[in-house]
Specification:
The protein folds into two domains: about 140 residues, Rossmann fold, CATH 3.40.50; about 170 residues, Sandwich (Tumour Suppressor Smad4), CATH 2.60.200.40. The chain is built from ten helices and 18 strands. The strands form four sheets. Strands 7-6-17-14-9-10 form a six-stranded antiparallel sheet. Strands 13-12-11-8-15-16 form a six-stranded antiparallel sheet, with helices on one face. It is elongated and about 60 Å long. GO terms for molecular function: kinase activity.
Length: about 350
């Protein structure tokens, strides 16, 4: 696969700011840094009147026309939306992390400080990185259905009311767990599993096949940092054409709190009530009367409605992310995307 150029004009997609001081300050920093570098650039601003999907498409088209670089400035949701348009376009992709957790940027050693991230953007090397997808909707960090999307929706409501912070995200999750949660009955088939399914329990098989699973949520990860933080043993399987699935058993509120605590201290993978496995392809279909209804799916914190079956796999094309030169060289030497 041919590495795209990284020294052309830069097309940056970012939130218009809605007048908020912090976002305006970051925008001013970007403008100042690009002007100082004497690099040709253009800002593409999105807001409630101009949705990010349309703005991202416009920015990518502009970048492709001049062998330029398209850049996402924002959290994992913003980065996902721009990457959705950039992947397969043939242009390099840059990131200026500005979110709450910034798992994607942090996992690729991209600084959370805007000035430092800009310095890397202007000097780094495009590197092919792995991207997951569910029914052709890509995800860089994770995708999920069931309880986890509900938690994300509640977190967004808390953020709009009380502001964005990691502490507020944890508090909103606690409040959400206190509510009632529906248990999903899922028919699951996976192929090319990398090894034993940790905590799979009685009757589970590791070689694939069709299995029925009752769980409050199914979580599929594509971010090694996030999985390592919660203690998932299969985190090291990422980056080799595999994703990692997690699914707790059908449990009550108290047990869910216990799992949340184990995740917070990096021991979720040790819980007997959590199934986990690495796979290359995972097909999921709700059983019974919910088999054809639409489900809410979360991809990198953004919610969308999809109809089953849900097919999880690694996207066939990599994303050409601009990273530190030494990081890019290490990946190239290892012989595969990260």
């Amino acid at each position: 696969m041919k590495m795209p150029p990284a020294h052309g004009p830069v097309f940056i997609v970012l939130n218009a700011g809605s007048g908020r001081q912090g976002e305006q300050a970051r925008q001013d920093s970007i403008v100042k840094a690009m002007d100082s570098a004497s690099r040709c650039y253009q800002l593409f601003l999105f807001d409630r009147r101009r949705p990010i999907t349309a703005v991202a498409k416009e920015a990518v088209q502009a970048a492709v026309s001049v062998n330029g670089v398209v850049v996402a400035a924002g959290g994992d949701g913003t980065i996902n939306a721009v990457a959705q348009e950039a992947i397969g376009s043939g242009c390099a992709f840059g990131v200026l992390p500005q979110g709450t957790f910034n798992y994607f940027g942090r996992s690729h050693a991209i600084p959370e400080d805007t000035d430092a991230a800009l310095e890397l953007l202007l000097s780094g090397t495009p590197t092919a990185v792995q991207v997951g997808c569910v029914n052709n909707k890509i995800f860089l960090v994770n995708a999920s259905l069931g309880l986890y999307p509900d938690l994300l929706e509640d977190r967004e409501a808390f953020k709009n009311r009380f502001g964005r912070s990691r502490l507020m995200a944890v508090f909103s999750a606690i409040i959400s767990l206190l509510g009632e949660h529906r248990q999903l009955l899922l028919n699951v088939h996976w192929s090319n599993a990398a090894g034993p399914a940790v905590g799979a329990g009685e009757g589970a098989e590791n070689a694939g096949g069709l299995h029925q699973l009752r769980t409050p949520t199914l979580f599929v990860g594509n971010n090694r940092l996030q999985l390592e933080q919660i203690g998932v043993a299969e985190a090291g399987e990422l980056g080799h054409g595999r994703l990692v699935a997690l699914a707790p058993r059908a449990i009550g509120t108290a047990a869910l709190f216990s799992l949340a605590l184990q995740g917070a201290i990096g021991q979720l993978g040790e819980a007997d009530s959590v199934r986990s496995l690495a796979f290359e392809r995972l097909s999921v279909a709700p059983a019974g009367r919910f088999g054809r209804r639409r489900f809410r799916i979360a991809t990198d914190g953004e919610l969308a409605w999809m109809r089953p079956p849900f097919e999880f796999k690694v996207f066939e094309k990599p994303l050409w992310l601009i990273k530190k030169t030494e990081v890019a060289n290490a990946v190239a030497t290892a012989g595969g995307p990260s």
